[in-house]
Design brief:
With 465 residues, the chain is an alpha/beta fold. It has 20 helices and eight strands.
């Protein structure tokens, strides 16, 4: 059924809530970091839009996901709905347990992630073009990685095992991971395929330890035929996570199961990674992905435009490709915004009309300001403590005290806060204590190479998030 009057013709070509949600999702993506979008917004699925009572129903993986959205992203979602529909909606979240009806799975949902449900590959949706080898544009910058992934998908556990892909954010690593999973599932639906992000592996491990459910946790991952791990660099520096991942890796490898890992850097540059894990990551093929050349960027734009059903002239394609050079996700995001603008205005894209879109994409992709909260959260994850313990004046255990010292040092490195202001952030400590702490950490880094590597890795993770 076609949606009509409620937005008074503002969106001319949208035939369903799913079409509208794609534009809302793109709006949200333009306002937050890629990691925040991929973790919280991209996993939302549209269920129903009730105009009678002004309510939008959205499907999320579990209650924790819903709670996080309510706490951190409701204002953004409200903005997105009002921007697209021109009116406000009440937003209600549903989980698989209480969903009023089953929604059509999105492209990304073809492989479930580390939510409450088992992270197994579902039957690929025939319209899920974003995560297949057919829609991956091959060029000189990625042809080696593409060939390696295709070999793994064609002959899992016998071609390259493990396969380790690395490259900067937005170059197609996640696309290739999903493509491997979808290709294997297409060829053999009985395969158990598990996709997990490095951060989520840590979160699930901590929760399983807290609930005394480690047997279920281990069974969940060690029953997989194919393990796909995205952003594996984020397990570095976390002792219990690395210990568990080491045994999971060994169990799967010994059982001749396929393992594919991605990272923003090669194993040797993940300084906080234990040597035994690094050696396993390096024991077979390592393939890098570089930024695409001009011809590949033009091909990506044309392919995305074709799949999105929007006509973009060669002149505009080349102009966009000449302005956005290092990030495929930015190219695809530009096409989505061009499509949304066409839907809203009904005008074919021109060089003049896309200039503002390109500017917005490039400006929105600038790294967000580093906050003390982000620093404390990352240090807490690295050292296996809570953010509250780091901020506390009372807790003086060695591990928590060390994590607090590192957090103070990193705060000084990554922010412009004064010593007094830093002291206020960490339990109202006196500025002289902050100065002493920073000097102490500097001496530790000079004496112990491992400490320096952990801190450098932590800083990189914070900047990359």
């Amino acid at each position: 059924m076609q949606c009509v009057a409620p937005w008074k013709g503002k969106i001319k070509l949208m035939d369903s809530f799913e079409d509208a949600w794609k534009v809302i999702s793109d709006y949200c993506k333009s306002k937050i970091t890629d990691i925040a979008y991929n973790t919280w917004i991209s996993r939302i699925q549209p269920v129903d839009l009730d105009f009678d009572n002004g309510t939008a129903y959205l499907l999320v993986p579990n209650d924790f996901h819903a709670q996080t959205l309510r706490r951190c992203y409701m204002s953004l979602l409200n903005e997105g709905f009002e921007e697209i529909f021109g009116t406000k909606f009440n937003i209600e979240f549903r989980t698989p347990a209480n969903a009023p009806k089953k929604s059509k799975p999105s492209a990304a949902a073809s492989i479930t992630t580390s939510a409450a449900t088992a992270p197994l590959l579902q039957s690929p949706d025939s319209s899920s073009y974003e995560y297949t080898f057919d829609t991956f544009i091959v060029g000189s910058s990625n042809k080696f990685a593409h060939a390696a992934c295709l070999a793994v998908a064609t002959n899992p556990s016998h071609a390259y095992n493990p396969l380790f892909l690395y490259g900067n954010s937005g170059l197609g690593k996640t696309h290739l991971l999903y493509a491997i999973g979808n290709e294997i599932k297409k060829n053999d639906p009985s395969k158990v395929i598990c996709y997990i992000k490095g951060d989520d592996f840590t979160v699930e491990l901590v929760e399983s330890l807290r609930l005394a459910k480690m047997n279920e946790f281990r069974q969940k991952y060690r029953q997989a035929d194919i393990l796909l791990v995205d952003d594996v660099q984020f397990i570095g520096g976390k002792e219990s996570t690395q210990e568990e991942f080491f045994h999971t890796f060994n169990a799967l490898y010994d059982a001749r199961k396929q393992i594919v890992l991605t990272s923003d850097r090669p194993p040797k540059e993940i300084k906080t990674l234990e040597d035994r894990l690094r050696s396993r990551f390096e024991q077979d093929l390592i393939a890098d992905i570089q930024p695409p050349d001009l011809e590949t960027r033009i091909a990506i734009i044309k392919r995305k435009a074709e799949l999105d059903g929007v006509e973009i002239s060669d002149e505009v394609c080349e102009y966009v490709a000449s302005k956005i050079k290092a990030n495929i996700r930015q190219l695809e995001g530009t096409v989505k915004k061009i499509k949304a603008k066409y839907y809203l205005d009904g005008e074919k894209p021109t060089i003049n009309s896309v200039q503002g879109i390109i500017s917005d994409i490039l400006n929105n992709d600038a790294p967000p300001e580093v906050t003390v909260e982000r620093i404390i959260d990352e240090v807490a994850r690295t050292y296996g403590v809570s953010a509250d313990e780091i901020r506390s004046q009372k807790n003086r255990s060695a591990n928590i005290s060390n994590a607090r010292h590192i957090a103070i040092y990193v705060t000084r490195e990554l922010t412009t806060l004064s010593m007094v202001a830093i002291g206020e952030e960490f339990g109202n400590r006196h500025y002289s204590t902050i100065i002493y702490t920073i000097q102490k950490v500097q001496k530790m880094m000079e004496k112990d190479r491992k400490v320096k590597e952990i801190i450098d890795d932590t800083i990189k993770n914070i900047r990359d998030r």
